[in-house]
Amino acid sequence: MLQSPDFLTNLLDFPLEITERVFSFLPPAKLRVFCGAPPFRTLALNALYAYIEIGDPNGPKVRDEEEHDLRYTFMDVPLFEKFVRNPEFTHVTIRRVALYSIAEVVNMLLKEGVLERVSRISNIHVLCGFAPPGIEDRLRTAAVYRLENITEATVHVTCSLDLETPVQIFSNLIFLRMVWHDDSTWDHTKPIPLPETLQTLMLQYPAVPVTVYRNLPSSLKSVYLEGVDNISISDFNSIEFSPSLTDLTIANTPGWEDLRGITLPPRLEALRLVELGIESFSGISLPATLKSLTLEANLFLAEFDVSLPANLVDLAIITSHLASLEKVQFPETLRNLELLRNRIRLLGFLSNLPDGLDELFMEMNDLGGEDDDLSLIRLPSQLRTLDLEGNDLFTNHRLCDLALPPSLRNLHLRQTGLLSLADVTFPPALSILDLLGNPLSTINNITFPDTLEDLLMEELKLTLVTAKLPDSLLFIDFRGMPLKTLADFRIPQSCREIFLGAGPLGSFSFLNWDDASLKLTRLYVEECDIASPLDIGRLPPGIKTLCIEKNRLVTLQGLELPPHLVELRVSDNYITSLNGLVFPDSVKYLELRLNRITSVESVRLPESLTRLSLAGNRLTNIDGMVLPPRLEYFGVNENSITEILHLELPESLLTLQLQGQKEGLTNILGIKKLPAGLKRMDISSNLLTSFNYAIPKGMKVLYIHDNPGLRHDAWRLAKDHPNLRLFRHHSGEEEALQANVGSSDEWEEWDEDASEGGSESGGSDEEMVDAMPEEGFSDAVSYGDTDDNSDPYGEYSDTASEFDEF
């Protein structure tokens, strides 16, 4: 956190290469500077505070500035001008500027039009926080300035004032969003003079009468109205929408239960009606040009009897009381139909769907009534996706009675009461089959298509798998099944990932376990009651990720690891020693958390290792431990280490976790110096009495709290290193540090408050340990290994999420 205006003033004079070093944790290509008052400071009235977001427009999205959980830097007009003038920053794209309070906007505009000179800015946010006396006249004076480069604007209105002038300032707007935070209806009757360039208008909870919306620009293509409680259907009909309007959304406006008599724009192509309390959608004239219709969260909607336009492509009815669509005539152009979370019981209407329908989603309805006859249902001949999740359809019916179209590629049948696949003829082009959560007890003697790539079988009732699955399969999920053996199961040749878990397997080996031609690279065996490496046997040579977590392993001796293994996870077992385990030179990530390891003295770790987690074990001594030269993460938190007398940390180290030793760590003098690249260190919840290390320039986090003997060191660090975070959670203590406390007595009070309130830094290992590098994980598995300061990129990354707690 850059809190010193003098520092920032000097910084903005420096060449870019020096600035890059100062901002080494966030390169200028993704530099974000928040200039404003955080919630616990008072906003100054005569200075401009702006939020500036700088970065690659195609880069990761950042959080809205309203969330107030970003880093704070304070910049007034001179500092902002200095930033603008520095030619070293001309290549950086400024994506957004936020101006807090109309008074600050006026002062800025009157100061030689600062923003006019910044032609790179296109997106501006204005928060009208207060309206001091005379503000209207000052705004009119400011209106001579035209910010022609601004094409997107968001205005948050929290006070009653004339809206005409603020909008006129932005003469070339394409997108305008206005949000009211004042419940009272204003005495404002003049239409807002919106620029003719405007294409998208969003009005949320407007506290103004309908007259404000008249005379909309002819270029307007999209309108979003939310919370327009003060507008009746007749008021809506009086709005003169431009002929160019093609997209209309009306949301969160109770009181529009009956839409009969509504006049919609004649050339509308997309209409979304969300949470309006609609009870009946009948007697409504829809524009012939309409291509997309969405009715969402209209909980009491029970009737849908309307003539659908001949050109309709997408129809979505989501979360309603609708029970039947038998009377609806669907147009031949319909391609996507979403009927989610309704009360539909009968499937007879499916025979009325056009043959060209591509996707049909019917999750969470009431399908499965005994009155249905699946053999009479004719699904669209070109259907590619069918989703029936969450319907108890196959308790009373058989899947084989439903004729699946040959074009079907994605079939989702999770939690549908499916009892059997007997006599089912699967479409020849099927790619994804989701059977999760059904009471299926066998899949033997079932012929699956050769095109199948993903087969999801979690929580089935299978005890044996002898079926021959197609070699095209890439992903198999056997988790949550009471499997007793897999000895007769043949792994498909193309399969990349297999998941086993939450079953009494006890041991596992496959029919073609030793086949060198297998493409299997990731194997996850969790909660399978594995007690010995002998229960695993020889692993396929191509495996790069092996997870054997939450089993009953006591030792790893005898486990022969594949020659190209990159990631080994054996956390949450009963392992006491690593003796006898030989690591391939390719191993980078080693997770040994929550075991009973007492010593690592004789363990030879591979030099390629970048992450080593031994948290939650029974280590009492790590003196003399030889850490690999490329190690970036070293975690031995939640052990029983009382002192470190000799430990050399590699220069590659980025994160060091020593917090929460059960007996209390009293001495770390054996660590002679901290690595120059160290970004994060946690020694909290111990019994340390001194910390006299030079802080590496790039260090961002040093959790030092809950060490009663370190209160004076912590106070010194807070003064000498204002950018350094010393507390795990944003709280009163951290605000005190951000304010640069003035005396050690004050620090003692904050430290005592923190101790009395408890510290989460001594909590579970899942809360402590950073996430593993992205490249070593499968997106399909959550390891419960992250805390709220996790680094999913394996280094102290430059993404926005890294510093959200700041």
TrEMBL record:
<protein>
    <submittedName>
        <fullName>Uncharacterized protein</fullName>
    </submittedName>
</protein>
<dbReference type="Pfam" id="PF13855">
    <property type="entry name" value="LRR_8"/>
</dbReference>
<feature type="compositionally biased region" description="Acidic residues">
    <location>
        <begin position="745"/>
        <end position="755"/>
    </location>
</feature>
<feature type="region of interest" description="Disordered">
    <location>
        <begin position="736"/>
        <end position="806"/>
    </location>
</feature>
<keyword id="KW-0433">Leucine-rich repeat</keyword>
<feature type="compositionally biased region" description="Acidic residues">
    <location>
        <begin position="763"/>
        <end position="777"/>
    </location>
</feature>
<dbReference type="InterPro" id="IPR032675">
    <property type="entry name" value="LRR_dom_sf"/>
</dbReference>
<dbReference type="InterPro" id="IPR051071">
    <property type="entry name" value="LRR-bact_E3_ubiq_ligases"/>
</dbReference>
<dbReference type="InterPro" id="IPR001611">
    <property type="entry name" value="Leu-rich_rpt"/>
</dbReference>
<keyword id="KW-0677">Repeat</keyword>
